[in-house]
Design the sequence.
């Protein structure tokens, strides 16, 4: 689907006069991201790990949580960390288990099977853990929507601590303590956008602070500080994978986490990076590699087999085991891609037949619950509208949804809550189980009507938001270094998008496996050679190769990147879209 280009309005002369020392293009990028004051700009560019992170004891239930955990450890009672099966939940589980082990806890982990048990706590698992003499259950990245399951746990003698970051239901579960920055009445923590792994890390920070306070040896205190920081590679992975805004505390965690990731001590993570064939030629790993290479492989474990494989990969100290598990996840990820592509192919006609609607409702049978969210995401991106995918699997009706910013999908689900046995999620992503097959028709009618009302008059043409127009003559290494200060890129702080008009195509060719990518050499023949550059358009060859020829004039939208190859480094335009000028 062709995109509508929308260039952000240029900053005013008055705004430029307020910051004469800042390159106007850089100032434009800052204003586009909401940074208009000196203090916020300085905080964005100049942050410190010690000073920038909030005190974990600002969580209203943190003190009682820490006390309970240390009491449980001292009494040698059994603790179970109950996590989620996605990259965020697995990373959160690993860092909390590792910390509790270091503190001397008797601790195990429980990750539910994605298809057989579903998201969050379930009664069968609670009964099993009670039978196994579990005393304290700590959830990570789940639990906030599990009222009945927490009631059952309490009845069976388990005390429950919930650490979660998901949407708050009307009725909170009766847990011993809840750590969730979104909980009203407990909202004393100043940053509400932590991922599940971020909330788990705040608990770890609190545990470490408490432990350090009881240590007389300064060397041991420093050792614990180092232990905490070496967990940041997994904190960064979980935070990026869960698509939370990379601003505020998340920006600090990911920035320092990327530093740790690029020299990680985790043998499993090193093997995963090798199998993904990233980080070569001294190219540092960034949020892009996490999003498109590392996180999908960790998620593939839960989608195809069991998330335990991803957990074990990240916690093992055996190189041989790490090699085998990394290979297993690579195989799972390849299978995940094939199966997802197959479902997308099967459902494309159904999706395209509904394009006059404001919400696509796709219904099928025997599609794995672990994959339908990917299908929903694919169509939501492609058609720029909310998508619900429902599958009947083994007499269960499961569904997943992805949305666009004007339509809060989890709030919509709350208005039809009587249709579900379980549901949860975020503003733009959800998962659910319907009570029975006969409610599908009712649910479909209600959710479509809600979308119709919310999106009345909305233009569904995909919009490409462009930061600013620039000329090739403005691009040089000092400019690239200034752009790099905006990293790490992600939700809330996207990689800058530039537009340059009236460029000449000097050469073009296909590159990459199966010739999917488009390589252009562009510039203006009348200008000096310095104003000519390479452009690479990933997966753009099919769309543009037959339409473009040498000598054509184009308008080009792109990211600015640095390409390293055979020891050489050059600036390159990573092409997003182009228009041929007739």
Sequence:
């Amino acid at each position: 689907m062709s995109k509508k280009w929308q260039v952000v309005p240029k900053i005013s002369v008055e705004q430029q006069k307020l910051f004469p020392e800042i390159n106007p293009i850089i100032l434009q990028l800052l204003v586009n991201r909401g940074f208009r004051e000196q203090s916020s700009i300085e905080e964005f560019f100049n942050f410190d790990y010690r000073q920038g992170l909030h005190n974990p004891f600002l969580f209203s239930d943190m003190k009682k949580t820490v006390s309970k955990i240390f009491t449980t450890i001292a009494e040698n009672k059994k603790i179970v960390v109950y996590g989620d099966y996605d990259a965020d939940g697995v990373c959160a589980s690993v860092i909390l288990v590792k910390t509790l082990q270091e503190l001397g806890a008797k601790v195990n982990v429980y990750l539910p099977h994605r298809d057989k048990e579903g998201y969050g706590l379930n009664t069968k698992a609670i009964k099993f853990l009670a039978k196994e003499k579990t005393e304290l259950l700590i959830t990570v990245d789940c639990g906030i929507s599990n009222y009945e399951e927490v009631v059952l746990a309490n009845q069976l003698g388990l005390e429950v601590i919930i650490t979660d970051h998901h949407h708050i239901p009307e009725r909170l579960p009766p847990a011993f303590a809840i750590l969730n920055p979104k909980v009203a009445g407990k909202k004393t923590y100043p940053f509400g956008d932590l991922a599940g792994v971020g909330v788990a890390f705040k608990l770890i920070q609190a545990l470490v602070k408490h432990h350090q306070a009881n240590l007389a040896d300064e060397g041991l205190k420093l050792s614990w500080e180092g232990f905490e920081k070496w967990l940041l590679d997994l904190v960064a992975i979980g935070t990026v994978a869960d698509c939370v805004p990379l601003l505020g505390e998340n920006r600090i965690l990911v920035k320092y986490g990327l530093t740790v990731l690029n020299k990680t001590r985790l043998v499993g993570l090193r093997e995963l990076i090798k199998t993904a064939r990233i980080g070569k030629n001294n190219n540092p790993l960034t949020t892009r590699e996490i999003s498109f290479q590392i996180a999908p492989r960790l998620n593939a474990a839960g989608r195809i087999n069991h998330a335990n494989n991803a957990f074990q990969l990240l916690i093992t100290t055996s190189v041989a085991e790490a090699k085998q598990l990394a290979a297993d996840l690579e195989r799972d990820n390849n299978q995940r891609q094939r199966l997802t592509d197959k479902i997308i192919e099967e459902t494309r006609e159904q999706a395209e037949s509904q394009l006059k609607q404001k919400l696509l409702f796709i219904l099928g049978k025997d599609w794995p619950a672990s994959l339908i969210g990917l299908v929903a995401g694919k169509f939501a991106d492609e058609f720029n509208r909310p998508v619900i995918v429902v599958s009947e699997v083994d007499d269960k009706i499961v569904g997943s949804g992805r949305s666009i910013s004007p339509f809060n999908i989890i709030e919509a689900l709350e208005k039809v809550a009587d249709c579900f046995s379980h549901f949860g999620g975020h503003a733009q992503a959800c998962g659910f189980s319907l009570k029975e097959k006969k409610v599908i028709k009712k649910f479909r009618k209600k959710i479509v009507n809600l979308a119709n009302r919310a999106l009345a008059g909305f233009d569904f043409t995909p919009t490409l938001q462009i930061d600013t127009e620039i000329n090739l003559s403005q691009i040089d290494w000092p400019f690239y270094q200034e752009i790099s200060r905006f990293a790490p890129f992600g939700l809330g702080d996207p990689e800058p998008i530039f537009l340059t008009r009236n460029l000449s195509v000097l050469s073009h060719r296909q590159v990459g496996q199966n010739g999917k990518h488009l390589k252009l050499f562009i510039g203006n023949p009348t200008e000096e050679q310095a104003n000519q550059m390479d452009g690479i358009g990933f997966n753009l060859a099919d769309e543009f190769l037959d339409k473009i020829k040498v000598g054509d004039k184009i308008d080009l939208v792109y990211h600015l990147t640095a390409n390293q190859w055979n020891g050489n480094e050059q600036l390159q335009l990573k092409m997003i879209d182009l228009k041929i000028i007739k």
The longest strand covers residues 498-511. The longest helix spans residues 319-352.
